[in-house]
Structure formats: structure tokens, C-alpha cells
Amino acid sequence: MGREKILEMLNSYDKNKIKIATLGSHSALNILRGAKDEGFETICICRDNEKIIYNSFDVADSFISINDFSDLLDKNLQNQLIDNNAILIPHGSFNAYIGNLNNLVVPVFGNRELMLWETDRERQRKWLLDANLKLPETYEKPEDINGLVIVKYPGAKGGMGYFLATDEEDFYSKSEKMIEKGFISREEIKNAHIQKYIVGANIYFSFFYSPVFNRVELIATDRRYESNADGIGRIPADLQLKIDLLLSYTVMGNFPVVLRESLLVQALNAAQRVVEVSKKIAYPGMVGPFCLEAVFDENNVMTVFEISARIVAGTTVGIPASPYSYLLFGENMYMGRRIAREVRLAVEKDMLDSVIY
Ligand code: AMP
Ligand code: AMP
Questions:
Q1: pLDDT digits over 120-137, tens only?
Q2: Does residue 356 form part of some domain?
């Protein structure tokens, strides 16, 4: 869907009656609550199974029921959103369960083209390299592996089925085990992305690029709580060897982190360069939330192993405010609210076109 068509749709909206909508999944609590904090009515597009979450926290003013996340592309459903002057806030489930938003005519906050750059490993790598970031080495094929690697798949799968390997033989035997366990498919193994494993401290940076203020903001930082990687350390090494454990990285939650202050130099510079490059690769460039996933090694060097071009779930550690968002705003501010604030300011300044694609 061309940007022109979306902006045309946006033009037909009553800007004083905008509602904020999202799929009931991933970080919808954060997004919907943030919208309410900024005075918007909210719509949760939700499967029956998850409705309990959004009802329990009372963040949705109305629900649209779906059977499957891909129903979002349904014409009638889209018309319902358009009739409500709804702006959609995308999150990880848009990547994981829908992918290409080409057939979506409802205005989206952010840049849907950059979300495609995120899901295509080659393009993502090019983006980050152009921004002069240090990335982990990658290996074209399993035969090239030499040393500890992590094996990943396309899309936002939250670490599901990732595994570590040290050589070709190890790669194939572990992938068979992962397929047997039903974590991944044979097809996914063919498209696996093999990256050098960086040992260090993992930090996920939730940034926000504001077209209204023309600045990059650090909203929150977190690290992940992963199963079973974070459980294995509780078993003594001799027993680990006996039970032949298969390591996995399926995300279960997140912890807040604050960084050693001097490390912010690398992170803030990286975020600014990522935004600069985004403007060259996908007009109008980055809008709103993005996340850099990094590892800092023992020499304080930051390696970035992933970018997400939308809100990430870990940013929820920053409700109602993270130390960083408080430093910047002096009030409670978190990603969902920051998104809604930008929409509100963009309406007031008549620059909604700049935050929508
Ligand atoms: P869920 O609604 O929990 O099924 O999550 C939707 C998608 O987002 C899945 O692909 C998850 O792997 C991913 N996801 C959910 N929570 C997180 C998180 N805290 N960190 C990273 N990915 C996540
Ligand atoms: P991702 O889906 O890329 O966010 O990665 C999921 C998890 O895998 C991360 O939270 C890390 O624990 C781990 N991870 C991914 N890539 C690397 C890497 N190159 N080096 C070390 N750990 C990694």
C-alpha cells in the first residue's frame, strides 16, 4: 500500500475524534493504557482467549473480536476501524503473525516499510552496518561455523527455537533435536541466521524518535528473562552434563536495567545514526519506538545484534516511568503514553502526516 493512499485515508479522518487501536497481544496493555493516559479512546482487536487480559486491566473502551490476528486485514474490519478514525499502533505480533502490511489501508503510527527492513535479516544488517554499528560476525552456511554461534530465524519469534552450536556437526544435530521438539520447522532451519555468540551483558534499549521534537529519546532499558537459558545456572555443572539439556532462549519476561552512565555514549550515538540512515532507506524514516538489542563485552564495547522498528514488549518495565523517561520528562512517561503523546502533539501542530505510514 503506497504512502499516498494511507495519507488520503488519514485526510478523511475527523482529527478531533481519533481513537487508538491495536491487536490484543504483545504490548497492548502498554499501548492502550498510554493512549488513555493521553485522553484517547481505545479499541482492542482481540481473540476471545486473550480478552481476559484487556478486561482485567480495563484498558479497552471497545473490542473488535477476531479469530486470528491476520483478520486485521479483513475489509470489513478495516472499515470499522476507519469509521472510528482509528490509528493502529503496531507491535511484535504484527511482525510475527501478519508480516507484510501491504493490504492494510488503516493508518499506522510509525513506518511500515521499516518494519519490513526489520524482518529481513539481510536488509536489517545493511541498515545497521550503514549506521556504523558493530555487529556480530555472521556465517553464510553451517559448514563455515568456527567457534560459538547462536542460530536464529526470521520474524519476531521471541527467541523461540534459537540454539547454540560450535561447528557444522553440532549445528545439524541440535537442529534435528529442535525440529523433533516442535520448536522449529525444517524450512526455518534452511533460512537460519547464524551469528557469532557474543559473551557479555545484554541490554535492550527502547528508543523513541520524535518527528515533532526532531530528537531521539531513550525511554526505557531492560534485559530478558529467557527459558531455559536463565534456569540452567541453577543446576550444578555435573548434573547439567548428565541430563543432556537443550539450551533455549524463549522469552518469558523482562527485567529493568540501568546502565553504567558512560555506556550511554555508545547507545545514544548508535540510536542517532540508526535514525539518520532510516531516513535514507525508507522515507520518511524512523517514527516513534524502536529498540536496539545490544551486548556489552568486558571491554565496554557495544555490539548490536538486532533492531526492532516498533515497540518492544520489554519496554513495559518502564510503566509508569523508567529512570530515563523521568529524567527527560519529569513526569510519568512510558512507551505507550509516549506514542499517544506524539499523536496528540502531531494533531495539535497539524503534522499528523509526519507520524503515519
Ligand atoms: P504473545 O502475545 O505473548 O504470544 O507474543 C506475541 C509475539 O511477541 C510472539 O512472537 C512473542 O515471541 C513476542 N513477544 C512477546 N513478549 C515478548 C517479550 N517480552 N520480548 C520479546 N518478544 C516478545
Ligand atoms: P533476539 O530474538 O535476536 O532478540 O535474540 C534472543 C536472545 O538470544 C537474546 O535475548 C540473547 O539472549 C540471545 N542472543 C541473540 N543474539 C545474540 C548474540 N549474537 N550473542 C549473544 N546472545 C545473543
A1: 889 999 999 999 999 999
A2: no
Q: Give the closest ligand to the alpha carbon of residue 306.
A: 2
Residues with CB under 6 A from ligand 1: 25-26, 92-93, 96, 156-158, 251, 254, 313-314
Residues 166 and 281 in one domain: no
The residue to mutate among 22, 23, 25, 26, having the most atoms of ligand 1 within 8 angstroms of its beta carbon, is 26
Q: For the chain, what is the domain count? A: 3
pTM: 0.94
Nearest CA to ligand 2 atom 5: 159
Model pLDDT for residues 194-213, shown as the tens digit of each residue: 999 999 999 999 999 999 99
Contact 343, 109 (CB under 8 A): yes
What is the number of the ligand closest to the CA of 224?
2
The CATH number assigned to the domain holding 55 equals 3.40.50.20
Q: Minimum-distance ligand to the CA of 28?
A: 1
Q: In sequence order, which residues have a C-beta less than 8 Å from that of residue 42 and are 6 or more positions away?
A: 19, 20, 21, 32, 35, 36, 59, 60, 61, 62
Mutate to test the pocket of ligand 2, among 157, 188, 202 (most ligand atoms within 8 A of CB): 202
Q: What is the pLDDT of residues 306-319, one digit of tens each?
A: 999 999 999 999 99
Q: What is the pLDDT of residues 134-190, one digit of tens each?
A: 999 999 999 999 999 999 887 656 677 889 999 999 999 999 988 888 888 888 888
- Which DSSP state fits 94? I
Show Cβ contacts of residue 30 under 8 Å, excluding neighbours closer than 6 positions. Answer: 311, 315, 316, 319, 334, 335, 336
